[in-house]
Amino acid sequence: MLYPQPMTRLINELSRLPGVGPKTAQRLAFHILTLSEDEVSKMAEALLDAKNKITFCSICGHLTEISPCAICVNEGRDRSLLCVVEEPKDVIAMERTRVYKGLYHVLGGALSPLEGIGPEELKIKELLQRASEKHFQEIIIATDPNVEGEATALYLGKLLRPMGYKVTRLARGLPVGGDLEYADEITLGKAFEGRIEL
Description:
Elements: H1 5-15, H2 22-34, H3 37-53, E1 55-56, E2 63-64, H4 70-73, E3 78-85, H5 88-97, E4 102-106, H6 124-133, E5 138-141, H7 147-160, E6 166-169, H8 185-193
Parallel strand pairs: 3-4, 3-5, 5-6
Antiparallel strand pairs: 1-2
């Protein structure tokens, strides 16, 4: 049975979201139909509000309402450290740890030739510009530990080291609370490489 045109359109629009397939889009659409008109209006307003008011920081590329963002203008941050991440959500994850107190640079993704994402599609030129204008004691590459993230980290290291920077990569290995028997070979290998002295 075919859905009425407005329902089909809603399912199609929802399925365009990342990670949302046709079945999930259908479930979401049915859920939205059970909401009151006021709840749907609030949802639509939240979408438009986010789209209209959120921008990217002119310095680091993080999400913000006012540019530069609160992190970049915070004089209490350690301005000798720069952490390079792929996406704004990575900044949020780092901030949640309450461990890192330096500045950030958001690339806007990772190198992925198969998907047509090269250095020109990322904010690498902006990173090099920041690095040439300011002297950081350390630039930390915090890209994802996957093929694209590793390629991006290696590429950035080759560009930043000749500029005289100490370039580091976040340690990788076993998760806290994990069991050795469930770890794959690559994770165990990285854990051995990143071991520390007790």
